[in-house]
Amino acid sequence: MKRKIRLLIVDDHFIVRIGLSTSIRVSDELTAVGEASTGAQAIDFYRRRQPDVVLMDLRLPDISGIEATFALRKEFPDAKVIMISTFQGEEDIYRSLQAGARGYLLKSVLGDELVRAIKMVHAGEQYIPESVAKRLAERTPDCDLTSRETEVLRLLTKGLNNKEIGDILGFTEHTAKFHIAKILEKLEVSDRTEAATVALQRGILHLD
To answer: What domains can be seen in the chain, in order of their start residue?
Structure first.
């Protein structure tokens, strides 16, 4: 008898884990061997059981799914991870694939597509739905923000002015203004409000 594909389901919402477990039961080739609600739990479970495929939520309460995926792939280069999320910003998708995810699905995915994606990733292929591939294609490589610019942008989205941003990050109001000018240029926007909107839409930042 052919061995079933063993899955680890990682999501901090119990209802989502139940939904994913229910979806994979339509196939007699798949079985859920474990669940985790945090990135740390996912890594610990993988070390002990080494499932065939991991369904990894993008946003987790301790570390992000991207960070958890990177850690798994660093320790276990053959780990096969599918990122699953409500977010479809191109930065989320790009960072997930850069971290080593072999697929990216939205949580609205239908059961048949979920099963197909799992089978393809288990077989060593990549699974990127057309809608996700389209968003990824919209990413502008030149827009990469430095870590300092990302910090400034995060504070900007909270409504802080230049002086407040400078005080928090330890530099002058003039330096804050310089960073914001660079952010607007890289994001190709004209003002702070548009920068905050684009950052959230594209997955560069998420609301806390």
So the answer is: 5-137 (3.40.50.2300), 141-201 (1.10.10.10)
CA distances from 70 to 27, 51, 126, 152 (A): 29, 16, 17, 25
As separate numbers, helices (DSSP H) first and strands (DSSP E) second, the chain gives 10, 5
Tell me the CA distances in angstroms from 98 to 94, 134, 153, one per residue in order: 6, 17, 22
Contact criterion met (CB below 8 Å) for 56 and 172: no
Close Cβ partners of 101 (under 8 Å, ≥ 6 residues apart): 56, 66, 69, 81, 82, 83
Residue 208 reports pLDDT greater than 70: no
Q: Is the pTM of this model over 0.85?
A: no
Write down the pLDDT at residue 141: 59
Whether the Cβ atoms of residue 29 and residue 97 lie closer than 8 Å to each other: no
Q: How far is CA 130 from CA 104, 106, 113, 201, in A?
A: 11, 12, 12, 19
Closest CA to 114 of 82, 77, 157, 155: 82
Mean pLDDT over 77-101 rounds to 90
